[in-house]
Design a protein that fits this description.
By secondary structure, the protein is α+β, with helices and mostly antiparallel strands. It folds into 2 domains: 141 residues, no CATH class; 105 residues, Glycoprotein, Type 4 Pilin, CATH 3.30.700. It has 8 helices and 4 strands; from the N terminus they run ααααααααββββ. Strands 1-2-3-4 form a 4-stranded antiparallel beta sheet, covered by helices on one side. Helix 1 crosses helix 2. It is rod-shaped. The N and C termini lie far apart (77 Å).
Length: 299
């Protein structure tokens, strides 16, 4: 008989492990009742461990007879990530963490939509948590049989390798800390990227106007009295609150309509070259440099 704690081989008559002193789980080693192929229910019991064994064995027996399908798992609904850790489903726990982080990022930018998606994902996860665990248990049983060969060694291996882990809370806390650190880096970086993209759109709208003003100056030898004189389209992108035009100096002021940069301005200032052509310089008044292309950053 193999110890479920340390996997040491012991005599069948032994009540405790000779190496670690743990009580031997004889209820899992039913040699007299098993044939050579083994009883699948016994393998289930050995792999699941002592916590909620009857519940999962019943569910798995139904899956065996009727096929896998949606059911309900309350612990996975309320504990989700910790439940995966507790049941030693490490890969699914990592995937769940990544997906949750993605949903939390979405909630920041679209609170209602992100919350609905997150809630839906938790409900679907709880409906299929038993299926995930069932397939994981079957993989462990198949792996144990392949490694160990005979039934007693297989059961001993499953007792040691399966079950639950008391390290769940510790691993969960470490994972949450790691995800928090990752979020503290990734979310500001994402915010900055989004801000730069929106500022780029706003700046392009300003540069489009410099083209029509330059063309007007080329044809008339003077700055237009208004942008309407150039025949330019007055529509603005969402990232632009308004655009001002100074008909004396020709300066174009782009006012931002971006949450982190609301009301901040970029100036496009013209000057006349020797060939009587206008050239434009981007002048930053109060937009942080991290959102700007190099041509507009404060020197």
């Amino acid at each position: 008989m193999f110890c479920h704690k340390c996997a040491t081989a012991n005599k069948t008559s032994s009540k405790v492990c000779g190496t670690c002193g743990a009580a031997l789980a004889k209820e899992y080693i039913r040699d007299a009742a098993l044939n050579d192929s083994g009883d699948l229910q016994v393998y289930y019991e050995a792999t699941i461990g002592r916590k909620n064994t009857d519940y999962y064995v019943t569910k798995f027996s139904l899956f065996d007879s009727l096929g896998v399908g949606a059911s309900w798992n309350w612990p996975s609904l309320f504990l989700n990530f910790y439940w995966l850790i507790y049941r030693k489903m490490w890969g699914w726990a990592i995937l769940y963490s990544i997906v949750s982080l993605a949903f939390f990022s979405l909630i920041k930018f679209a609170p209602i939509l992100g919350s609905l998606f997150h809630l839906s994902a938790i409900i679907v996860f709880s409906m299929y948590a038993n299926v995930l665990y069932y397939r994981r248990v079957h993989k462990r049983i198949a792996r144990a049989k392949r490694i160990c060969g005979n039934q007693e060694r297989t059961l001993g291996f499953l007792l040691r390798d399966g079950g639950t882990t008391r390290m769940g809370w510790f691993v969960a806390v470490l994972t949450i800390i790691a995800l928090g650190l990752l979020a503290s880096i990734a979310i500001p970086a994402y915010d900055q990227l989004q801000g730069r993209m929106k500022v780029g759109v706003a700046l392009r709208s300003g540069y489009e106007l410099t083209k029509v003003v330059s063309e007007y100056y080329r044809q008339h030898g003077a700055i237009p009295k208004s942008l309407a004189d150039t025949g330019s389209d007055s529509s603005l992108p969402k990232s632009v609150k308004e655009i001002h035009f100074d008909n004396k100096g020709g300066v174009i002021t782009v006012v931002m309509n971006i949450p982190a940069l609301e009301g901040k301005e970029l100036l496009l200032v013209p000057s006349i070259e020797a060939n009587k052509e206008l050239i434009w310089e981007c002048v930053n008044l109060d937009v942080p440099d991290r959102y700007l292309p190099s041509a507009c950053r404060t020197k």
